TrEMBL record:
Residues 1-21 have a biased composition (Low complexity). GO terms for molecular function: carboxy-lyase activity; pyridoxal phosphate binding. Gene3D superfamilies: 3.90.1150.170, Type I PLP-dependent aspartate aminotransferase-like (Major domain) (3.40.640.10). It comes from Tolypocladium ophioglossoides (strain CBS 100239) (Snaketongue truffleclub). GO terms for cellular component: cytoplasm. The modification N6-(pyridoxal phosphate)lysine is found at residue 372. Residues 1-22 are annotated as: Disordered. This is Glutamate decarboxylase 1. Its cofactor is pyridoxal 5'-phosphate.
Length: 553
């Protein structure tokens, strides 16, 4: 086949790179990343510049009276679709079309770098996570390479351009390659990093045996699903080949547990009706006495109690379950104990907070998501356990074309421990952040976040115009409360819900995004602070809520 162009790079012909027998991918990539950088850095900078505005509880306006809301340019779905006019063309639009598309995505996306984003159990990434971790798209690719394509280097002398910061590593120290982390042969460095990082995390939770460790999964839901599969295939080995068979398995989870438990039961063929919810106490923690009653009841019905999902940092209120008591019940009835520490697990780094994880070493498996409290880039989830040989035995299948046997006592082909094949090197996001901040740095960040939650709680209490869900400081980083002038809450749940929803909507135009959740007296406000939240931000938020509430009356 004869090439029809002398400049076959995708950005000049919208065609295949290398038609003339030569590759120009580095030049094309450098050109695109340089252009994308000019869009991304201002996006983050705008959030930094807006931090001072958040302390006022309001959003400034330009000279025309237009709101300068960095957090989000909000529209209804149909209107946004019309504004985006996002069309996938038959003919490529090249660099100009790409940059125009990225500009639109940034313009109409929530800027989670903004201090006002207090809506979900995550916030902006740490700069080190974005800058050096494995990227997810072209938007992240620039940060993967840093300045590698733009300066001289002993490894790549053909690279020329702007100088990097004085502390930037040589380009051969920055992750530049793409790997599928399924077998050691093709991802040796990332395999070692994942095993090292997972083992270090496992040790912190009390899994200290020689085979302790973990693996990364696609997210907390995937980690929880994997734990259920491992539990079933370990406690009832025949189910690995014969399925659930005659076993009428029952899974137990907190009434405040994550919905992924029901989805996992559906996927495993147990059915979500066999997920039994255990009542919680006033603080939102699972009641061990009620768990035992339900287990006994299940056995009386001829069912097989299989698995208990306990929680470290529940999604709504941030509650921690009594793991030691739950472990005793699991041992008594031969059940698997899993701890979903997706949200609250990182308190293990804090000397002030880790007491909340007392008994975590008794678990058979544990999920932790550094992309939440630790601000690692999404997704980054670990499933940890005391013995990785159990994970391997439960999940491995015969695939001689990929897994060629293991003569080492350690397991190095990590996909054989999971339900996946191709896997991302998500552990690198935590490993590099750990190198950058250190465990002590993580501790300081987490302690700061808890200080901010405490600060917000005390501000809310001080005004006298709110009713909090508990009389104590929040167990995690969520602060939950109703707006109630004079501390008097309406006994009409519908009225409370309507007020809460209206306040949430009005806050967006003041530069804040918070969430709400259903409660006994209607929906309440749920604010999630993070490791980068400033005291002035929560002070401005309380002011904004009070002003928004006055507008609703």
């Amino acid at each position: 086949m004869t090439a029809t162009t002398n400049t076959p790079n995708g950005h000049t012909t919208n065609g295949t790179n290398g038609l003339n027998g030569r590759l120009h991918r580095a030049g094309e990539l450098g050109d695109l990343l340089s252009a994308v950088r000019q869009l991304i850095i201002p996006f983050v900078q705008a959030a930094d510049d807006a931090a001072l505005d958040r302390s006022t509880g309001n959003v400034p306006q330009d000279i025309t009276g237009r709101s300068q809301n960095v957090l989000v340019d909000t529209h209804k779905p149909g209107e946004l679709a019309a504004r985006l006019k996002f069309i996938l063309p038959e003919e490529g639009q090249g660099k100009d079309g790409l940059l125009e598309g990225i500009q639109k995505v940034l313009k109409y996306s929530v800027n989670t770098w903004d201090q006002g984003f207090l809506d979900k159990l995550y916030a902006s990434n740490t700069p080190v996570g974005v800058g050096l971790g494995p990227g997810k798209s072209l938007l992240y690719a620039y940060f993967e390479l840093g300045w590698c394509d733009f300066r001289p280097c002993t490894l790549h002398p053909q690279h020329q351009c702007e100088p990097p910061p004085s502390n930037w590593p040589p380009c051969h120290e920055v992750p530049l390659t793409y790997h599928k982390l399924h077998v050691y042969q093709v991802s040796p460095a990332l395999t070692v990093i994942e095993k090292t990082t997972a083992r270090a995390l496992a040790n912190r939770f009390g899994f200290t045996g020689p085979q302790a460790g973990g693996v990364t999964c696609q997210g907390g839901s995937s980690s929880n699903l994997t734990s259920l599969v491992v539990a079933r295939n370990t406690l009832y080995p025949g189910s690995k080949t014969a399925g659930n068979s005659k076993h009428d398995f029952v899974v137990f989870t907190s009434a405040h547990g994550h919905y992924s438990v029901e989805k996992s039961a559906m996927i495993c063929g147990l059915g979500d009706s066999n997920v039994w919810k255990v009542p919680v106490d006033e603080s939102g923690s699972m009641r061990a006495d009620k768990l035992r009653e339900l287990v006994v009841h299940a056995k009386e019905q001829g069912k097989t109690p299989l698995y208990v999902n306990s929680t470290a940092g529940s999604t709504v209120r941030g509650s921690f379950d009594p793991f030691e008591e739950i472990s005793s019940i699991c041992k008594e009835f031969g059940m698997w104990l899993h701890i979903d520490a997706s949200w609250g697990g990182p308190v293990v780094f804090s000397a002030q907070q880790r007491w909340k994880l007392k008994g975590s070493h008794l678990a058979d498996s544990l999920t932790v998501n550094p992309h939440k409290m630790m601000n690692a880039p999404t997704t980054c989830s670990f499933l940890l356990g005391p013995d990785m040989r159990i994970f391997n035995k439960a999940n491995s299948t015969t695939a001689g074309y990929l897994f060629h046997g293991n003569t080492d006592e350690d397991i190095w082909d990590l996909a054989d421990l999971t339900l996946q094949c191709g896997r991302r090197g998500d552990s690198l996001k935590v490993a590099l952040a750990w190198l950058y901040y250190g465990a002590n740095g993580f501790e300081r960040q987490i302690d700061h976040a808890f200080d901010m939650a405490s600060h917000l709680y005390k501000l809310v209490q001080k005004t006298g115009n709110f009713v909090t869900l508990s009389s104590d400081l929040p167990p995690c980083l969520q602060v939950c409360f109703y707006h109630a002038p004079g501390g008097i809450l309406s006994d009409d749940a519908a009225i409370n819900t309507a007020k809460t929803q209206t306040i949430v909507e009005k806050l967006i135009h003041r530069g804040f995004m918070v969430d709400y959740a259903p409660g006994e007296w209607g929906s309440f406000l749920r604010v999630v602070v993070n490791v980068q939240t400033l005291p002035s931000t929560v002070e401005g938020l309380v002011q904004a809520i009070e002003e928004a509430a006055r507008e609703t009356t």
